[in-house]
């Protein structure tokens, strides 16, 4: 009986040992298979894991996903981490993708990471992460670092050495400006300004004589230029802000200029039709219209009218006390002058000078006056001649046939 029990016990132990051995073998095989599958795993990589960028850049970065698991598989892919304000996605072929089929081995799968950098950005280092996942333990993450240095964060620059100048109306202002391209490639900049209406602004590269509307600047190079600013005639005194821009495909740069127009004064005397001559008769009053113009950029007040005439002549104006109360900057006033040559004036040409004057300035003009006298005896002679001719006609009619 004991032998039977011993035999059965041995069989049980053997069976138990066989089961344990079988389980251990199965476990080892499973572990071996899992290790082989996950040892190689997935690997994300790119040729340029660190890139310098500028605000507003749009980047296309090739990304490779390699499969070392021993068999082809489908992997979920995504942009798993992105700085605030940045935008990005993965593209495969012509599609935006979230999953990619990856063959085993070195061939792998190709993707493109599209990244849009915000237009407003401070200096520093920024990281974007791309992730791939095909099951537990079969995953990888690729960090890509984007560096923004001080030059790139500030883009290029467009500056003027002396951005504020002053002068009277009619002054031509010249500003010395410098345009710097901090980009990684040559750029073409269009040049423009927002000057007030009537103002003229032009750009001339340093060392050249030709005005330009655009300029090419190599990467990392600065270009000097002269910004010429011409205000319109008679511009009022005051401060004028002029912003000049340099615009390329990747950035817009600007520099702010200021022109201070100081007061300028001027008066001219003329006529509505610009004729500086008129006819007059001795002893009789003739009228001439004078145009008094304020050619400055400041309003003028209390403009007095004066004249320089030959002896015996007189002049008066249709203005009380020969005074013009005010003329605005750029404005004009018409005045009628009543000119009376002396009664003893003989026929001929005379010069009359008219002057408009105020505390700040004055203007004058010389007029040629053609004086004519009354021909009373000439009229009498004409009457005598007519009478004589009539008498002779009568005599010829009466005695002509005898």
UniProtKB/TrEMBL annotation:
Highest taxon in the source lineage: Bacteria
Domain Alpha-galactosidase NEW3: 168-246, 282-357
Pfam families: NPCBM_assoc
InterPro entries: A-galactase_NEW3 (IPR018905), Ig-like_fold (IPR013783)
Claim: Methyltransferase is one of the keywords in the record: no
Keywords tagged on the record: Membrane, Transmembrane, Transmembrane helix
Gene3D superfamilies (UniProt xref): Immunoglobulins
Protein's UniProt keywords contain Transmembrane helix: yes
TM annotation in the entry: 376-396
Stored PANTHER family: ALPHA-GALACTOSIDASE NEW3 DOMAIN-CONTAINING PROTEIN, HYPOTHETICAL MEMBRANE PROTEIN, CONSERVED
Protein name as catalogued: Alpha-galactosidase NEW3 domain-containing protein
Organism: Clostridium porci
């Amino acid at each position: 009986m004991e032998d039977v029990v011993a035999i059965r016990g041995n069989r049980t132990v053997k069976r138990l040992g066989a089961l344990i051995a079988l389980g251990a073998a199965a476990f080892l095989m499973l572990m071996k298979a899992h290790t082989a599958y996950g040892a190689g795993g997935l690997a994300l990589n790119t040729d340029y894991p660190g890139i310098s960028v500028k605000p507003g850049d749009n980047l296309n970065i090739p990304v490779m996903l390699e499969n070392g698991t021993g068999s082809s598989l489908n992997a979920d892919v995504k942009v798993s981490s992105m700085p605030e304000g940045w935008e990005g996605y993965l593209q495969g072929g012509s599609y935006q993708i979230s999953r990619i089929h990856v063959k085993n081995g070195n061939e792998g799968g190709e993707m493109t990471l599209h990244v849009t950098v915000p237009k407003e950005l401070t200096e520093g280092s920024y990281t974007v992460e791309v992730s791939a996942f095909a099951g537990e333990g079969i995953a990888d993450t690729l960090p890509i670092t984007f560096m923004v240095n001080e030059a790139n964060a500030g883009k290029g620059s467009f500056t003027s050495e002396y951005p504020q100048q002053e002068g009277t109306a009619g002054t031509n202002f010249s500003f010395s400006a410098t345009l710097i391209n901090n980009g990684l490639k040559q750029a073409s900049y269009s040049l423009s300004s927002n000057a007030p209406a009537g103002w003229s602004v032009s750009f001339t590269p340093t060392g050249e004589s030709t005005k330009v509307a655009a300029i090419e600047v190599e990467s990392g190079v600065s270009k000097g230029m002269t910004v010429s600013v011409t205000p319109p005639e008679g511009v009022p005194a005051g401060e004028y802000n002029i912003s000049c821009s340099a615009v390329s495909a990747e950035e817009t740069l600007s520099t702010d200029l200021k022109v201070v127009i100081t007061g300028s004064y001027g008066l001219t005397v003329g006529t509505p039709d610009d004729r500086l001559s008129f006819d007059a008769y001795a002893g009789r009053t003739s009228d001439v219209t004078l145009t008094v113009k304020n050619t400055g950029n400041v309003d003028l007040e209390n403009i007095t009218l004066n004249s320089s005439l030959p002896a015996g002549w007189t002049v008066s104006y249709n203005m009380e006390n020969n005074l013009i109360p005010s003329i605005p900057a750029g404005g004009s006033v018409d005045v009628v002058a009543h000119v009376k040559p002396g009664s003893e004036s003989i026929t001929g040409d005379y010069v009359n000078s008219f002057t408009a004057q105020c505390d700040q300035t004055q203007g004058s003009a010389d007029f040629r006056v053609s004086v004519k006298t009354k021909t009373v005896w000439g009229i009498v002679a004409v009457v005598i001649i007519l009478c004589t001719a009539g008498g002779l006609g009568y005599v010829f009619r009466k005695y002509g046939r005898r």
